[in-house]
Amino acid sequence: MSEDGTTESSVSPSPGEVQPPRTQVDPPRVRRMIELAVVVALVLVADLWSKAWAWNNLRDGHSETVIDRWVYFEFGFNTGSAFSFLRDAAYARVTFIVVTIFALLYMARLAATLPTRFRVAFVAVALVSGGALGNLHDRLFRAMDLRGELRYGVVDFIKVYYWPGKVWPTFNVADVALVVGVGLLFIFLARNGDALDPPAAST
Question: What is the pTM of this model?
Answer without folding.
Answer: 0.81
